[in-house]
Amino acid sequence: MAGEGMKSALYRQSARRRGLAFAALLALAALPPLLQALGQDFYVSVAARMLIFALAATSLNFIVGFGGLVAFGHAAFFGAGAYAVAILAERGVTSAFVAWPAAAALAGGLALLIGAISLRTRGVYFIMITLAFAQMIYYLFISLKAWGGDDGLPLMARSTFGPFDLGNDATFYWVALACLAAALFLLDRIAHARFGRVLQGIRENESRMAALGYPVAAYQLACFVIGGTLAGLAGALIANHSLLASPNLLHWTQSGTLLVMVIVGGVGTLYGGFAGALTLLLLEELLTGVTVHWHAALGLLLLVVVFRAPRGVAAWLHGLFSRGGTK
Amino acid sequence: MNALLEIRGLAVAYGASQVLFGIDLTLAEGEVATLLGRNGMGKSTTLRTLCGLSPAPAGILAGSIRFAGEEIAGRAPDRIGRGGIALVPEGRQIFPNLSVRENLVAFAANRRGVASPWTLERVFELFPRLAERQQNMGNQLSGGEQQMLAIGRALMTNPRLLILDEATEGLAPLVREEIWQCLARLRAAGQTTLVVDKYVERLIALADRHTIVERGRVVWPGSSAELDADHGIWHRYLGV
Amino acid sequence: MNGEKSADLLEVAGVSRHFGGVHALSEVSLAVAEGEVHALIGPNGAGKTTLIHQLSGAQTPDAGTIRFAGEDVTRLPMHARVARGIARSWQVTNVFGRLTALDNVALAVQGRQRDWGGSFRFWAPVDKERAIVDEAAAWLAEVGLAGRESTVAGSLAHGEQRQLELALALATKPRLLLLDEPMAGMGPEESERVVELIEHLGRKVTLLLVEHDMDAVFRLADRISVLVGGRLICTDLPDAVRAHPEVRKAYLGDADA
Amino acid sequence: MTQLILEQALNGFQFGLMLFLLAAGLTLVFGIMDMINLAHGSLYMVGAYLAAAAAAASGSFVVGVLAAVAGTAVVGALLEVAVLRRLYQRDHLAQVLATFALILIANEAVRMLWGDQPMLLNAPAALAGPVEIGGFSYPAYRLLIIAVGVAVALALYVVVAKTRLGMWVRAGASNREMTEALGVNVKRLFTLVFAFGAGLCALAGALLGPLLAVQVGMGESILILAFVVIVIGGIGSIRGALVGSLLVGVVDTLGRALLPWLLRGFLPAETAANLGPALAAILIYLLMAAILFWKPAGLFPARG
Predict the structure, then answer these.
(1) Does D41 fall in a domain?
(2) Which chain D positions have a beta carbon within 8 Å of B44's beta carbon?
(3) Closest CA to A31 of A161, A174, A168
């Protein structure tokens, strides 16, 4: 009976949810052959890009939603991962098994450094100091001509990945999907482990956690580093996807876009980043077909989200579901 | 009797939890009245509602507040402030980033066209210590000086009704004495005042009538003489 | 009890704290002996809660030292003081409102476990750690909340939340427990329950108790310290404090003086 | 060399003053309502476009500037009443999302009205040349910007420091509830402040228009600088915004001009040429991080 009580209200694991997740994974895995059968090969690559952004947004959601830290510099980790892969490739290191972990480690190390300093501040000042660090990284990369400056650093080919050919869009898509699924699984485990419980407590009531003997900043830093590391992996993927480590990946508007994805999808929900990235990128695809002024349409839609679905699309859909669904 | 302030059946809630269950209170022009009771019994909420501060207006469940013949329950705080009610809030809440002088002149007004309105000079006469410190910023003052400034700031709006919430709380005995003397002088000058404080004996000497609140309800209204005569009431509702 | 320095668990010497021009605490010195129930009383705004903040590490004093079990803890952050055995409760209920009662206490129990990385464990589901679950349930029973394990803390009655708050503090297994008005805003029956609980706790852990309810204070305290306007005016046995003329004047107002 | 340093210092001062025009409104909005307004840069863009359009239509630069200030103030007030007012009670994330949306909408609106190409806004012909001051020559138009910037900063100082309106604004920034209880309609005060801040944005946009390109997206790059400024200065503090603006303007401009040259003194030429611009570009962010590290609430915290 006591064991039942331990289940936290926010993160309930259930067989039904696990089943749904598995079904969704299968459906996503079946997408490339389906698109190819429809003669829409081009969209396999588009879909892969969505998955990569979903990973980046998920990593940010872990920091913002689960850690309760509103960070405005996630592009730094995303971009650093991309540049790590490109720089290594330029030096002849093309194996994904070396380059991708290196990219994640670089982003994680950066997050450790930036987080350790930024976590001295709170609230708005935290938002701004993380932004400042991201801007430093941005300007550092565009100023260094050796790394391509404004033009970015191109890759000759996608990383080598054992026997698999990442040059094939479908294979690349599946690898990206595997990375996303693994990250979601990992974050779900973390959320339910001791560490996740502590983060939940900190988000709920920081001072009370300190009064229970928790060194709050250390846990927040760990959370920040985990998010940064995963963003680095997403960066490695996006560089492979577009065969370019672009300074645009480091720009503050990229941080803004990722944050918008998180808010649109649902802050603090496991699938929020995924839902947000998908929603935003799909809207972009749809709206560009309809109007050249699609940015304005997107802006209006975002305003609708703010005022009509304040807890994000995921929660809004969930609400629709539970109203119309069983019971 | 022409009441300046008339509260009838005021019921107020913070979100889901109701804190006032029907407060009645009447105050005539020139009178000094108190609101008594232990901590957490609803005194501050009554005063805040009177001034239009949270939980008003959404928190007002029932009742009316008539001030100078007008219904003001649920009005925006700035309209109530301009209408002649000035609050000396709990914790003083002076503006730390304004100088003493600015704290006083920023909100000065004589909307009623009083013949001898409150001015800087008169406030400095009442509290000479503020005159010495007029160029200091609000956050450089001691607790007692902050309290004097909070009272001075309220007076500068030339209010018809002055409200003091725990104005002597946390002050050294000597400073507290200064505040009491100031209130006595205001009374002599005919200032209508509503006071929340703990020092019953001083309040009996200062005020005309008293209302004791317990758990959001009025449990005893009466005059100073009645309260002075019945120490049982003190101990039942106010005892430490 | 006064003379033996070695028996003092907590030694506060000359602690001052000001906010802007307001002197909330002026050179407060105070000793709490191991095992005693020490009450801290004084009118509102006297600096009682401010003193608790300095002791618990929520704030750092401008001057003076705080020694706990012989160690200078004046500059230590709150979590480090908790690790050394100082726990506190808040005047305004401070629990994790969206977690269940059991989750609340489990966090406190988990915080005490510093074996292999403590809470830096990222994989194993905490829900399955029986030791934590069982101990948390035991603490809930200890404060009289058995049966309320799976109720979300925010929907517990006010008195129950205060009990939960006590369970949180106790589950850190403190040597010294700082209680800031544990009976604030309680009805008579709830108060009585908490008084009994504190009486029971007083036999197990050293208590520093801030409370307005004088009946409770005189019933519970071994010694009482009186704080007025940020200064400590006396520390003595309850009867002596009751008779102390300055205390009567300053604390009980000018009522009977 | 002295000529260069002096010229760059003046350029930095001039840029700092323009930053101040942007930061002043932003810091008040942020300070009083605890509101993150990413769309502040869009008002700067709208101001520049209005100035260019009005100047082209009337043939007068001055008319262009005045029309821009008035027009943008109206746009600001409308924006505040229609959208932003609903966001004050929401959390920072909602504010970020909504004002990000406003940026998208503003950029597209400008594109629809004036097209993709940058607009031309010329400084008055009379101010096109340089002015000689004791053997030192400096562009006349930049001197005008400095003069206007100083004048506006002084006027703003007088308004904020000496008038009752300024006291209300400062009081509102530190304690909104008490300000209301003392009879000030903070809601209306805030619409006024917002319109005023929008007007200042437009002034900066119109004055910088002839120096920088009037184009879509011009607001975003300068917005970040304005945020850096107000965070350095302390959110809600006008004095902090002024100090922060001048600091950022001078450090940024001088850094770009002098750092590569300084580095050449002790580094190999190639490394210096590489590192110089990079270091110069991140100088202000280093400055901000350092200030927040030692003073986590900025140089002049407005609250308690």
Answers:
(1) yes
(2) none
(3) A174
Where exactly does CATH 3.40.50.300 map onto chain C? 2-85+174-256
d(CA D185, CA A90): 63
Q: Classify residue C115 as left (phi > 0), alpha (psi -120 to 50) or beta.
A: beta
Is the preceding omega at residue A247 within 30 degrees of 0, hence cis?
no
Please report the domains of chain B, with CATH numbers, ordered by start residue: 32-54+76-238 (3.40.50.300)
The CA distance from B32 to B26, in Å, is 11
What pLDDT, in 10s, does the model give residues A281-327?
999 999 988 888 888 988 998 999 888 887 777 777 766 655 443 33
Enumerate the residues of chain D whose CB falls inside 8 A of the CB of residue A122: 296
The residue of B44, B104, B107 whose CB has the most chain D CBs within 10 angstroms, and thus the best one to mutate to test that interface, is: B107
- Quote the tokens at residue D149: 């910037």
pTM of the model: 0.86
DSSP secondary structure, A104-137, as one string: HHHHHHHHHHHHHHHTTS-HHHHHHHHHHHHHHH
pLDDT in tens, C208-249: 999 888 888 999 999 999 998 888 988 999 988 888 887 776
Q: What is the nearest CA distance from B37 to chain C, expressed in angstroms? A: 13
Spatial CA neighbour of C108 closest among D78, C116, C99, C117? C99
Q: Would A319 be classed as within a structural domain?
A: no
Q: How confident is the model at residue A4 (pLDDT cuts 50, 70, 90)?
A: very low
Q: Report the run of H or E that residue C19 belongs to, with start and end.
A: strand C8-19
What SS3 class is residue C7?
A: helix
Query: In this complex, is the C-beta atom of C252 within 8 Å of any C-beta atom belonging to chain B?
Result: yes
* Residue A307 tokens, joined: 């005022």
Q: What is the mean pLDDT of residues A216-242?
A: 97
Domain that holds residue D207: 10-215
> Are B139 and B106 within 8 A, CB to CB?
no
For residue B57, the cross-strand partners are: none
> Is D274 within a domain?
no
Q: Determine the structural domain holding residue A113 and report its residue range.
A: 20-32+41-251
Q: Number of structural domains, chain D?
A: 1
Q: Is residue A160 part of a domain?
A: yes
> Can you list the pairs that A196-199 forms with residues at least 24 positions away whose Cβ atoms lie under 8 Å?
A196/A11, A196/A66, A196/C122, A196/C126, A197/A8, A197/C103, A197/C106, A197/C107, A197/C110, A197/C119, A197/C126, A198/C107, A198/C110, A198/C111, A198/C119, A199/A66, A199/A67, A199/A68, A199/A223
Q: How many CB atoms lie within 10 A of CB C70?
A: 10
Report the number of distinct structural domains present in chain A: 1
Neighbours of A46 (CB within 10 A): 15
Let me know if residue D267 belongs to a domain.
no
**Helix segments in A212-271, DSSP class H:** 216-242, 252-265
Tell me, what amino acid is at D285? Y
Beta strand B217-223 with C8-19 is unpaired
Please state which CATH class domain C2-85+174-256 belongs to.
alpha beta
Q: Would the CB atoms of C121 and A6 count as touching at under 8 Å? A: no
B and A adjacent (3 or more CB pairs under 8 angstroms): no
Q: Do B198 and C253 touch (CB under 8 A)?
A: yes
Q: Nearest CA to CA, how far is A296 from chain C (Å)?
A: 38
Q: Which of B146, B200, B240 sits opposite C214 (nearest CB)?
A: B240
